[in-house]
Amino acid sequence: MAEEKFQFQSEAAELLKMMINSVYSNRDIFLRELISNASDALDKRRIERLRNSELADFTPEIRISRDKEGRTLSVSDNGVGMTRDEMIQYLGTIAKSGTKEFLAAMKQEGHDPHPGGENQDQLIGQFGVGFYSVFMVADKVEVISRRLGSAEACRFTSEGDGSYTLSEAERDCGTTVTLHLRPAAEGGKDYTDEWTLRDIIRQYSDFIAWPVVMSVTRHKDGKEVVEDETVNSQKAIWCRSEAEVTEEEYREFYRHLTHDWKEPLAHIRLSAEGATSFKGLLFIPSEAPFDLFMNPKAGGISLYINRVFIMNDCQDLIPEYMRFLRGVVDSDDLSLNISREILQDEPIIRVIRRSTQRKVFNELKKMLESGRETYEKFWTAFGRIFKEGIVQDHEHAKTILDLALFHTTARDGEGGWTTLAAYRERMKPGQEGIYCLAGRDISALRSSPKLEPFARRGYEVLLMTDPVDEVILADTSMMGEDFPKLLNVGSGSVTPEGEEERKEAEARLKALEEDFAPLKEQALSSLSERLEGVRPSLTLTDSPACLRDSPNGLSFQMEQLLRAAGQTPPPQKRIFELNVEHPLIKKLMEMAKNKDAQTADLIALLYDQSLLLEGAALADPAAFARRLNKVMAQALGA
Ligand code: ADP
CB of 35 closer than 6 A to ligand 1? Predict the structure, then answer.
């Protein structure tokens, strides 16, 4: 095979230039990336060997070699290696799909893609340009790799100029990455110096499970001897005592595990002794990855047996509604050749799962009580997923509901979260229950006309925006008998007035019945397909109208949910509530009585407006615009 030259994809070339020219404040991380890749490759080879006893045994090792005069540094592993195609796929395409988004984010942040800065560093890290960080310290990189089971090795070289070459090479199974270092005179460190390298490895890669070996020169008995030394402690971070591990070490480990550059919100240590003994370390990330909501099967826990990696994304270790967690669980009690398929039925796994679940509940409770700010961040990112547990896990539904935060009208603006218990404490004497309003969009809920009678009387209302809230609203029996009922103020039958007040209002409406009848008839006939009833409102004050769910059908919220899930429930007819004390409705009542031709358009506009206020889409926006234009033209005398 002759040497062949390839072009990087176009964005990649731009990114390379930017990285090379950037004054990256932490160039050292290139070594972390290379060692991390080597460690992954060793994990993979070990697993292939476990599954296939015909493969030769091997002694995993990551070797750092340096040449001060020749100014090269190489990181070599005897892991799975890469085929020629894999080298093209993984090394010839920077950060795979992320590159475009990365550059877009850079531009959006207003960065000139040349000068460096803290934000830029964060962005680079966040998009995991991994292998490419080598160009911060090297002007030429050579990768020689041979895939386990393949007869040939391949050489990849690049000078970070937008192209790379591939050619034939020789080596055993594994990968060697050799960097031709830029001159150290650029003010940077000398990456061929033993102590510089040791420091970096201790800082970033100490916990790597495989030995990182370097040959060092020592003076013994007046003679120079060259010997191999393992420079990382290889101590699994979850096996060290809590007091021994620094925050920085937790962060590095989290990065190694997740490739997430952002700091995790919290870590949770797991430890159990006895019939089943296991240890573990879990992290709560600070943000949800983009596919977390769509993919209920996403799971971020890696299983280790006796400190050796067995598999990642081990879904059976935690319940689905805790799938936002990342981390490792390590047990000595499992058999090394355990497979994904039998994991679920493994009693030890079930024990681990229960105990992990309990620990996570406890830690969240602690955080809620003494780290409210962090807890609210957690809830904002993952509350929606965590709450799914109320439906999935009846046994712990109460625990989860106790941990749940809800938006509330009590503390307006951003955040504004409360627990059910805190709401209960603030309830007014004689208040019938916990007032709740469900909808899709928090800002639409905050300005909903349905809140008016409650706001006027100083009652607090919980605002619920998650799919599972419908279920909570329907049944809170898990909270115990003496727990106040959740009352849905969207229904129209829940009102905050006392008995007296209500009777008075009813009498007032009765007196108006005759005047209201023509408008009611008009509304029912022109919106017959969408309305089950029209009634004067007992509760609205400032708004002219609102829509209520019929007690006979699905709630509007549920109908929208089903539609979003691809189902086609029959359109639900609703109840149109009109505020007969509002000047607009008074005028409309008069117009309907006089059979004014404009009444139908106006009532249809009011209906659409009520839908818009709920954050819902209009069935026929064109008709809405046509009517509105007509009314505007008339108002302007055009
Ligand atoms: P990341 O590690 O975040 O996926 P990298 O750019 O560091 O991104 O590496 C890209 C891919 O190249 C890796 O996911 C892996 O498949 C492959 N790779 C890198 N280094 C090695 C190695 N030493 N041995 C085997 N495969 C490797």
Answer: no
CA–centroid distance, 492 to ligand 1, in Å, is: 59
Q: What count of other Cβ atoms lies within 10 Å of the Cβ of residue 57? A: 7
E strand or H helix that includes residue 514: helix 499-526
Beta strand 300-305 pairing with 174-181? unpaired
Least confident of 142-151, 153-162, 303-312: 303-312
**Ligand 1: distance of its center to the CA of 347 in Å?**
35
CATH number of 237-380: 3.30.230.80
Instruction: Give yes or no for residue 38 CB within 6 A of ligand 1.
Output: yes
Closest CA to 302 of 209, 366, 386, 395: 209
Copy the structure tokens of residue 55: 């493969």
Q: What is the DSSP letter of 113?
A: S
Assess whether the C-beta atom of 77 lies below 6 angstroms from ligand 1.
Answer: yes
Question: What does residue 22 show for φ and ψ, rounded to 5 degrees?
Answer: -70, 150
- Rounded Cα–Cα distance for residues 229 and 527 (Å): 83
For residues 500 and 508, give the distance between their C-alpha atoms in angstroms, rounded to a whole number.
Answer: 13
Residue 109 CB neighbour total at 10 angstroms = 12
CATH of domain 405-496: 3.40.50.11260
What pLDDT digit, counting tens, does each position of 182-191 carry?
886 556 789 9
Q: Is the pLDDT of residue 102 over 50?
A: yes
pLDDT digits (tens, 9 = 90+) for 268-278: 999 988 888 89
CATH superfamily of this structure's domain 501-638: Heat shock protein 90, C-terminal domain (1.20.120.790)
* 307 Rama sector, left if φ>0, alpha if ψ -120 to 50, beta otherwise: left
Asked if 134 contacts 28 with a C-beta cutoff of 8 angstroms, the reply is: no
| Cβ(24) – ligand 1 distance below 6 Å | no
CA atoms within 13 A on the CB side of 588: 26
Confirm if 8 and 101 have CB atoms less than 8 A apart. no
Query: Using a 6 Å cutoff on CB, does residue 386 contact ligand 1?
Result: no
What's the whole-number mean pLDDT along residues 399-421?
A: 84
Structure tokens of 350? 């079930």
Domains 12-227 and 405-496 share a fold: no
Which residues neighbour 543 within 8 Å (Cβ) at sequence distance 6 or greater? 449, 452, 579, 582, 613
Mean of pLDDT over the chain:
85
CA 428/CA 410 separation, integer angstroms: 13
Fold of 12-227: Heat Shock Protein 90 (3.30.565)
Residue 151: alpha-carbon gap to chain centroid? 42
Whole-number Å distance between alpha carbons of 80 and 68: 29
Do the beta carbons of residue 466 and residue 321 sit within 8 Å?
A: no
Q: For the chain, first and last CA: distance in Å?
A: 80
The type of residue at 474 is A
Q: Where are the domains of the chain?
A: 12-227, 237-380, 405-496, 501-638
DSSP string, 445-501: HHT-GGGHHHHHTT---EEE-STTHHHHHH--GGG-TTSPPEEEGGGSS---S-HHH
| 366 C-alpha to ligand 1 centroid (Å) | 38
Q: Which atom of ligand 1 is nearest to the CA of 95?
A: 6
Q: Which atom of ligand 1 is nearest to the CA of 174?
A: 24
Which pLDDT does position 98 carry in this prediction?
Answer: 45
Alpha helix ranges (H) inside 52-136: 84-91, 98-108, 118-126
